[in-house]
Each structure stands twice: as C-alpha cells, then as structure tokens.
Amino acid sequence: MKYKLLAASILATMSTSALSATYQLTELGALEGAKYSYVTDVSESGHIIGIANGLYNLPVDIEHIDFSLSLIQNAYTNEVNAFELSDKEITFTLEDIEKNNAVATNADAHSFMIRFLANVSANYQFQKLSSLTAIKYDSGAAVEQTLFDINSPDYPGVTRSVTNFYNAVAEDGTTVGW
C-alpha cells in the first residue's frame, strides 16, 4: 500500500509538470542614458513596449532665463542653505550658470537648474522638461520612440519638453500612447 501511494504521487507530479506551460526568459536591455526602464505592455506575438524614466543630462537652455528674477534668486538661496546644512560648500553661483555655462560643466549646477525648472513647470515663461520617454524593445534592446517631441533648434537632440508614453501594443505591433 505504501509503495502504491508513492508511485501514485510520483505519477501525479510528473503528469502535472508535463502539462505545465513552459516559458522562455529573455533579459531586456535598458535605455542607454536613463536610470530606469519599465515594460508597460507585451503583445501575444512578442511586441514589447515600455517607458524609460530618469534621463541623464537633460538639456537646459539658459538663454531665456532672467537670473535677476526673485524666483530664481530665492531658489538659489534655498540651495545654498541646503548645502550649508549638509556641511558642503556650494560649487557654483547664478553668475556661473548665466555667464560661464556652469550647467554644462558642473553637475551641482545642472541638478539645481533641473530641480528649479521642475518646480516652476506651471510657469510658461520657463523651459519645460520631461525625463520620461517611450521605448520599444527590438531584439531585447530598448529603442527610444520620440512620439511628439521635436528636434531642438538650440542644441543637439530633441527638446525633452513633452512626455512620451506608450500604453498598449496590439498583436500586429500597433502601439497606443500619449
């Protein structure tokens, strides 16, 4: 009786594993120049879409910023205070950003301007930036899809002023996004 029960349980285990679905795992690449890459949808025929967030080196156009505005002066004062609270010395001034293009050469100045522009995003006098973009996976590699963005007349690449987001992909590869 003991052996019959053992044989029955082995047979039951083998028969369920034979009927189980099998999967093939494929590692998908991340978008180069982005912190995070996510899959948002996969079609039954294998089309894969997603988003990338946290793009590095977002282009900051300082040409049209009036650095004498109290809005940016106050933001810089808050930045200096934050540096002092962390016992760090600030490595840039607003004059460095305005006249010496410190945004391109100083990581702290670049981060400050990105945060400043994000905080004043409702103010249409300032540049709009988005670090979220749509991606399509082609043979496991992430390829950026600039759905609604345009090339910038002021610097190489796209403006990064709009968010490109993929929502869904159909079986024939047709994608939906905003």
Number of helices: 5
Q: Which percent band covers the strand fraction?
A: 15-25%
Q: In whole angstroms, how far apart are the ends?
A: 65 Å
Main beta-sheet strand count, sense and barrel state: 4 strands, antiparallel
Write the H/E string, N to C.
HEEHHHHEEEE
Q: How many distinct domains?
A: 2
Mean pLDDT level: 87
Task: Give the low-confidence spans.
Answer: none
SS content category: alpha+beta
Question: What are the SSEs and their pairings?
Answer:
Elements: H1 2-19, E1 34-42, E2 48-55, H2 70-85, H3 94-100, H4 102-105, H5 107-119, E3 132-138, E4 141-145, E5 166-169, E6 175-177
Antiparallel strand pairs: 1-2, 2-3, 3-4, 5-6
Question: Mind explaining what this structure looks like?
Answer:
The chain is of the alpha+beta class and 178 residues long. It has two domains: 30-58 and 129-177, no CATH class; 70-119, no CATH class. It is built from five helices and six strands. A hairpin with a 5-residue loop joins β5 (166-169) and β6. It is elongated. The relative contact order is 0.18.
